[in-house]
Amino acid sequence: MKAEFWQSRWREGVIGFHQSDVSPALPAFWQATVGAADGRRVLVPLCGKSLDMRWLHAQGHRVVGIELSAIACEAFFREQGWAYEQDHAPAGSELSWTRWRGVGAAQGIELLQADIFAVPDEVVGAVELLYDRASLIALPLGGEARMRERLAERLADWLPAGAAGLLVTLDYPQAQRNGPPFAIGPAAAEALLGPTFEVRLLQTVDMLSEEGGSRWPVDRLEGHVFALRRRGAA
Predict the structure, then answer these.
(1) Burial 96-122 (b: 16+ CB within 10 A, else e)
(2) Residues 140, 116: one domain?
(3) Neighbours of 191 (CB within 10 A)
(4) b or e along 205-225 (b: 16 or more beta carbons within 10 Å of the residue's beta carbon)?
């Protein structure tokens, strides 16, 4: 998906992917998967204005989200009633980015407004945990651009060996519906992340039986939650 597709969604308010509440996967599985917060820094890729970041912050984590849209970044802080500061890529830099850094009650949360494929590693900084509900399923598999595969590689590069994470996906017969969101089931998650992460399925939910699921023209719609752990010596 090209950057302009997502920018236009935010400009036009077509953001059905935004959840109006915290993902049930977080209170159900987060602590058991990653352990105590201890101020560890959580990476939330393609974060939008997700309330999941507020929940992670409330548990005692520092949070760094990466998001393309300035509209989403501003809306996140405004809707929480939180103040922020900004800093930008140095003048003359080849890569454009803006850091929205929370202050006061929002201290410990920062959103990097940037192209996730181009944001410099040193701007992202050290991260110790991963939470992904929206990034990998936002991108198609394969093709000339290899966007999903490239993002999986970036996540693996940013996370140190032994780092834990939680991945939330949707799965359905891809031929029956155009994404986004795109389908990622257990086999696809293993194929994509298995070379660099241990992937463990925690939960599968039949979403066709839930409210709103019937609007999808598919024979099967499942939600999956996976525990991840970066391979290598801890």
Answers:
(1) ebebbbbeeebebbbbbbbebeebeee
(2) no
(3) 15
(4) bebbeeeebeeeebeebbbbb
**Cα gap 212→123, rounded to integer Å:** 39
* Contact (Cβ atoms closer than 8 angstroms) between residue 129 and residue 107: no
Report the run of H or E that residue 135 belongs to, with start and end: none
List Cβ neighbours of 158 (8 Å cut-off, separation of 6 or more): 43, 121, 124, 127
Are the C-beta atoms of residues 154 and 136 closer than 8 Å to each other?
Answer: no
Distances (CA, A) of 180 to 1, 22, 207: 9, 20, 17
234 pLDDT tier (thresholds 50, 70, 90): very low
Q: Are 215 and 154 in contact (CB under 8 A)?
A: no
Give the DSSP letter of residue 108: T
- Tell me the two tokens of residue 46: 């393609």
pTM of the predicted structure, to 2 decimals: 0.93
pLDDT in tens, 75-126: 999 999 999 999 999 877 777 899 999 999 999 999 999 999 999 999 999 9
Same domain, 140 and 175: yes
CA nearest neighbour of 44 among 145, 160, 144, 168: 168
The residue out of 95, 127, 159 marking a domain boundary is: 127
Mind listing the pLDDT tens digit for each residue in 206-228? 988 775 556 788 999 999 999 99
Same domain, 123 and 142: no
- In three-state secondary structure terms, 33 is helix
- From first CA to last CA, the distance across the chain in angstroms is 34
